[in-house]
Design brief:
The complex is a heterotrimer of chains A (about 375), B (about 350) and C (about 325). Chain A has about 375 residues and is α+β, with helices and mostly antiparallel strands. Helix content of chain A is about 25%, strand content about 25%. In chain A, strand 16 (about 325-330) and strand 17 (about 335-345) form a beta hairpin. The N and C termini of chain A lie far apart (about 60 Å). Residues about 80-110 and about 155-165 of chain A have low confidence and may be disordered. Chain C has helices at about 5-20, 45-50, 60-70, 90-100, 100-105, 135-140, 150-165, 210-225, 245-255, 270-280, 305, 315-325; strands at about 1-5, 25-30, 55, 75-80, 115-120, 145, 170-175, 180-185, 195-200, 205-210, 230-235, 240, 255-265, 290-295. In chain C, helix 7 links the parallel strand 6 (about 145) and strand 7 (about 170-175). The chains are: A alpha+beta (about 375), B alpha/beta (about 350), C alpha/beta (about 325). Chains in contact: A-C, B-C.
């Protein structure tokens, strides 16, 4: 009896996924959990481990095919639960982790049975974006243990740099392709910007003292606090701030949640955590979803200024450069001071110049006198 | 074993009027206090239980008058009289009974556990016979520290049938401790007549079993109590060891306020009214030239003192609830207890 | 550092504290003339006199009661109960007097009393001479409870107990008196009350224990090493106050826990620890918390029966191994 393999649902906002690469060909015998196919969305590339044990019978979606979650992309032969025929898509569970969804676990999800996992396994799964329903438990009576969740989390391997192999002129695939299409869409939007320069002497002193906190973290706190007074900049979304991270595969923007409930240290450690995951290619779909506004910091490259594009559907983005020693006027005297350039790019369909300016001014105030936001 | 009967006081007594007045003042203050807190209790202004010593004032007054402020006493659940007689301030005790933060025990003890260590009062004990060990220990401390203080244990007939009575009296005797054991023999242990719990007419004879000297005296005669105590104090301070004193007295009220007293007849109680130690003292002092107006003044001053005490108590705050969680260990202000249901965030 | 016996270590503590503070004295049955049944009071009457080293009649209530009374009035008594089982003959004096006077009287006094109580299973002493009763006193507010497992802690904890102004129960396992261990030369060596000791660091499973069971836990840890399992052994040393921070650290480090004591398992100190961990370290647990303790029977006499009812190193290692191998 054939078993249909659905396109996995990777995160709540996923509308379609692209089959980037098949690792097996029809006729191959596949173990449960073995890497089977690479799927990418506009946010991430995902290594999908086989949920089935058996023989890959037929590939329905060749590389490059774009399909919604739940649509069948392949068939397996062999024993297992009778599945609906290829034509009607499966009702998809939410994101499936890669060490394989045992048929029993998938059935359990449908029957609404409890997943048995230890408390630390649950917490780790939550933090890493691992869906327990797809994890095989090696504890007594099938209990999912910490080791099982760690194995599942590490099975999401780093996305390879697919863009390098795309022929010149042709539309790229994979993560690059996702970025390509995303930028094409927002290219038509009316993006305006307001900018300012500030003396960050005080902030530099603070960061000297607090080695655990970065410029980006300080900017995130300032943006979060300012967002509290200007919620329309975020479109009324919860105070989640995206942080642009440069990775091998391309730009990724993981989101620091609930910044209005965090202090500086909490923001700094969360940014570190997300950045590490991003660089290891281990961001989960829920790490990049949503967000009210984002921040792009080119300071580490010692570049003075960046005018980034908002991470649509977000309406604004803050660009910040490096704090560079410049001549500055203070109390009528010319002195040398560390000067930071801030740019707020915004979608003018939603935000006008004056509110944008006021928002940026508040951020500037916080970064000039950081004690006001701590 | 030695048994010294009380000298016949009535016959050839030279009365020390000043001492008599001092004893009378103490007894009157105790009486006013006990009647006053009884009324407060019945009006619902005193929580918990109340055990009154009305009728037994002479024992408290007479014993404590023979002690230094630095000597120790341990008392029972019926301890207001002992506490006042030892020198504890009436207002702080009233505040304690009324559960105020300004009480002797910060509102944590109440009537049954009043204590005042500033005048050697080692506490009223809610466990019958709880005081014997404390007094034996206090007396032992004196010997080890090379001091000449004495420790007095007040108790009732009920306590004499408990284990610690026997163990501690034996220990005090064999170690020659400067302790005095004062039995307020009021004929009842709680609601049971002594006749039904002990074969002895005079429980003091039990002291023979421990090789301890004893005296039996008239608990309605404050002078007699004082003199017997003085003899015991001199023996103890002089290194002569412990003494057992039994004072026959009567408890005019029930075991506790609210006790229906089904265990004795009203006639019996009424017949004992003439044994009032205050009436007796006033009679003796009258015979020796003290004017009635003096007695009235003493009574008036006692009433005023009590009224001021109640006013003080009522003006005092109740304890901060968080105080409930500290004070058990000397270290618990550093890491106070949680209540168990204070859930961590 | 010198290697001396547990009994000698406690004797050193007594001697040092009695020299340091002349209000410290000791009383109990069979201590002055006999020097204690484990030799733990030898030489004290000669140095400090019979005023400060007192033999009492067999009167536990008076012994404990007068200890409380003395502690209230300027001296610092050490009361030796001979066997912990006999504390039962003076429960009112411990629970209703010693533990409560400071609180009931609004902190007008303190009770700097130490109760020494040899306890535990040894050599067919049978039901009335083999008990470990510390859980009762953990459950009584107003008391400190300390339980050393080795000579150094025996000395340091006894000194701290004597200097503490709180009533302190000092449980010393009868089977430990003859054991030897290294003790610092420092004549002011104090072990703080309420602080645990990490006896062995490890990552795979935590074994929380105290007293003689902590030594058995260390033996178990050695056995586990050859199975490739690294055990983290915590010797609590005090159970009131309890070092919850050390317990939380152990949980966060290993995610698996065995709690073991020689006392009866049901309602023992381990139950308090397990419940606390389950509530406060819930998200750190990768497996259920396991408690080991004696069976719920009076201690039998025949050696083969006695040895059957309480956990030893082998049983501790077995429980830890099963946790790590996900069999529990």
């Amino acid at each position: 009896m054939s078993r249909a393999l659905p396109m996995p649902k990777l995160g709540l906002t996923m509308t379609t996924g692209v089959v980037s690469k098949w690792h097996k060909v029809p006729g191959d015998r596949v173990q449960k959990g073995e890497p089977l196919v690479e799927v990418s969305t506009d946010k991430i590339a995902f290594e999908y481990g086989s949920p089935f044990e058996g023989v890959l019978e037929r590939i329905e979606a060749p590389e490059g095919t774009e399909l919604p979650p739940g649509a069948t992309i392949a068939y397996f032969s062999g024993e297992g639960e009778p599945e609906a025929p290829a034509a009607s898509p499966e009702p998809a569970p939410t994101a499936v982790a890669t060490n394989g969804a045992a048929p029993a676990a998938a059935a359990a999800a449908r029957r609404g049975e409890r997943v048995i996992a230890s408390p630390v396994a649950r917490r780790t799964a939550r933090q890493r974006g691992v869906d327990l329903r797809g994890v095989r438990g090696t504890g007594p009576r099938g209990r999912i243990t910490l080791a099982d969740v760690m194995a599942a989390a590490s099975a999401i391997v780093a996305p390879r740099s697919v863009a390098a192999h795309a022929p010149v002129g042709a539309e790229p695939s994979g993560v690059r392709g996702a970025i390509y299409r995303h930028m094409t869409e927002i290219g038509v939007l009316p993006i305006a910007d307001v900018s300012t320069e500030i003396d960050v002497t005080e902030l530099a002193t603070l960061l000297e003292r607090r080695k655990d906190v970065s410029w980006t973290a300080a900017a995130t706190l300032a943006v979060a606090r300012a967002l509290g007074d200007h919620p329309e900049i975020g479109g009324g979304a919860p105070c989640d701030v995206g942080i642009a991270v440069d990775t091998q595969a391309g730009l990724m923007v993981p989101v620091v949640r609930e910044c209005d409930r965090r202090d500086l240290r909490s923001i700094a450690s969360e940014i570190s955590r997300l950045a590490a995951l991003a660089r290891e290619g281990r961001l989960g779909p829920d790490d990049v979803a949503g967000g009210a506004i984002s921040i792009s910091n080119v300071g580490p490259a010692k570049i003075a200024r960046v005018r980034p594009l908002p991470n649509a559907p977000q309406r604004a983005i803050l660009g910040m450069g490096a704090a560079l020693e410049r001549p500055w006027v203070r109390d009528g005297q010319i002195i040398a001071a560390p000067v930071l350039q801030l740019v707020l790019s915004f979608d003018h369909r939603w935000i006008d110049g004056a509110p944008a300016a006021r928002f940026l001014a508040q951020i500037a105030r916080y970064l000039t006198s950081p004690t006001e936001m701590l | 074993m030695q048994h010294s009967p009380s000298p016949d006081v009535k016959a050839a007594r030279t009365v020390d009027v000043d001492l008599g007045l001092a004893l009378l003042r103490t007894m009157r203050r105790i009486r006013v206090f006990e009647e006053g807190v009884e009324a407060l209790f019945l009006a619902g202004r005193v929580p918990g239980f109340l055990h009154l010593s009305i009728g037994q004032e002479a024992v408290a007054a007479g014993v404590c008058a023979a002690l230094r402020r630095t000597d120790y006493i341990a008392s029972t659940h019926r301890g207001h009289g002992h506490t006042l007689a030892k020198g504890s301030p009436m207002d702080r005790m009233t505040a304690e009974l009324m559960a105020r933060a300004t009480g002797l025990c910060k509102g944590k003890g109440g009537s049954m556990h009043v204590a005042d260590f500033s005048c050697g009062m080692l506490g009223a004990n809610g466990v019958v016979a709880g005081g014997f060990g404390l007094v034996a220990g206090a007396a032992l401390s004196q010997k080890i520290l090379g001091k000449d203080g004495v420790a007095v244990c007040f108790f009732g007939d009920g306590a004499t049938n408990r284990g610690p009575f026997h163990e501690n009296l034996n220990l005090a005797a064999i170690w020659n401790l400067p302790a005095i054991f004062v039995l307020e023999a009021n004929g009842y242990a709680s609601t049971t007549s002594t006749r039904e719990t002990t074969k002895l007419q005079d429980i003091a004879t039990r002291a023979n079993a421990y090789g301890m000297p004893y005296e039996i005296g008239d608990g309605f005669d404050a002078f007699a109590v004082y003199e017997a105590t003085k003899r015991a104090v001199e023996r103890a301070r002089g290194g002569g060891g412990p003494t057992f004193l039994e004072f026959k007295c009567y408890r005019m009220r029930g075991h506790y306020v609210g006790d229906p007293e089904r265990y004795r007849e009203r006639d019996e109680v009424n017949a004992r009214k003439s044994d009032d130690p205050i009436v007796r003292m006033e009679a003796v002092l009258s015979e020796h030239g003290v004017a009635k107006s003096t007695f009235e003044q003493i009574a008036r001053e006692a009433s005023e003192e009590f009224e001021a005490a109640v006013a003080f108590a009522e003006a005092s705050p109740f304890p901060d609830p968080r105080e409930a969680l500290v004070g058990a260990l000397t270290t618990d202000r550093d890491v106070p207890n949680d209540r168990g249901w204070d859930l961590a965030e | 550092m010198r290697t001396i016996s547990f009994a000698e270590a406690t004797l050193e503590a007594m001697r040092e504290e009695m020299r340091r503070d002349e209000t410290v004295f000791v009383m109990g049955e069979d201590i002055a003339k006999q020097g204690g049944i484990f030799g733990q009071f030898k030489g004290l009457p000669e140095e400090f006199g019979l005023q400060r080293v007192l033999d009492t009649p067999i009167s536990e209530a008076a012994l404990m009661g007068s200890g409380v009374g003395a502690a209230l009035t300027g001296t610092r008594p050490v009361v030796d109960m001979h066997f912990a089982d006999f504390i039962t003959c003076s429960m009112d004096e411990v629970v209703n007097q010693a533990a409560k006077l400071r609180y009931m009287f609004g902190e007008q006094c303190s009770v700097p009393l130490v109760v020494r109580a040899p306890d535990g299973i040894t050599k067919s002493a049978a039901a009335q001479h083999s008990q470990s009763l510390e859980a009762w006193f953990l459950h009584t507010p107003g008391l400190e409870v300390v339980i050393p497992s080795n000579p150094a802690d025996a000395k340091g904890l006894l000194k701290s107990a004597i200097r503490s102004d709180n009533p302190t129960l000092y449980f010393e396992h009868k089977g430990l008196f003859a054991t030897k261990g290294e003790v610092p030369d420092d004549d002011d060596y104090l072990v703080p009350i309420g602080k645990a000791r990490v006896a062995r660091e490890g990552d795979d499973v935590a074994i929380i224990s105290y007293g003689i069971a902590a030594n058995r836990a260390l033996e178990a840890a050695k056995q586990l090493e050859s199975d490739g399992i690294s055990a983290h052994v915590v010797d609590l040393r005090s159970i009131a106050p309890m070092d919850y921070a050390a317990i939380a650290d152990a949980t966060a480090r290993t995610h698996r826990m065995v709690i073991v004591h020689e006392a009866v398992r049901v309602g023992g100190a381990g139950a308090e620890i397990a419940a606390w961990v389950a509530q406060n370290c819930f998200d750190e647990l990768d497996a259920p918390i396991v408690r080991l303790g004696a069976a719920r029977v009076p201690m039998p006499f025949a050696p083969v029966l006695q040895e059957h009812v309480y956990p030893k190193a082998g049983e501790i290692a077995d429980a830890a191994r099963r946790l790590v191998r996900k069999q529990l």
